[in-house]
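User: I'm new to structure prediction. If I give you an amino acid sequence, what do you actually give back? Let's try with this one:
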Amino acid sequence: MTGIDYATLKIDPPREHVQRVALNRPEAMNAVDTQMGRDLLDYFARLTAEPGDVRCVLLTGTGGKAFCAGGDLKERNGMSAAQWQAQHELFERAFVTMMECPVPIVAALNGIAYGGGLEMALTCDFIYAARGARFALSEVRLGLMPGGCGTQNLARAVGERRAKELVLTGSPFTAEEGVAWGAFNRACDPASLEDEALATARTIAGNAPLSVRQAKKSIHYGMQMDLLTGYRFEIEAYNRLVDTEDRHEGVRAFNEKRKPDFKGR
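Assistant: Good question. You get back a string of structure tokens that encode the predicted 3D arrangement of the chain. For your 265 residues, that looks like this:
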């Protein structure tokens, strides 16, 4: 996943199988406009189809003030209903592609994340958030409601009652509150945020990539099933790993007391 230039994303070459992706509209607090929707959809669709050397993604924002301020309301000002819905269809496709991406995504919220910005973060597998920043699903204050899977992902993370409180009031919350409620994984000092998120991404990338992807799939889809059906799904995912080169390498390395050299095969 290198060699592609995006107007609204800054993509670094993979290092230790981790690719850093930064939302890159700092002049607009990294707000999501139509082009960013296209860029996110294209990047994560390509990553899904051909991950190459990328085993984990670190997603953050440029500029230091915001991860993402939400949808770009300046671009949306004056849109017809048809134009608005067409744009939102693009955002929907991008967010679903992120949720279904087999490669784990670690979000590092280096500043505010409001509305669609927080919804984007909630599509990721892990969220590390900077202390001092504020986060909210604030759409009800604009005559809207979350439309980027926010009501679904937030409720699954924090529970129905807390999700209703946050969504229906539109009130902001802190990184520490997000961790306490289960929305975020960790609250970090701004200076160490990316290093801490990167350390987790590198740990994931050091494990067998096929195992990581199958386990992620099993958790994600299993949570939408009853327990026994989810378990059957888990076993199907498990059985696809038994005859892989990486499984053989992992067992050999354990017995030979060395670090395994996983190839993703």
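You can read the tokens as a compact description of the fold. Here is one thing that stands out. Residues 81-99 form the longest helix (19 residues).
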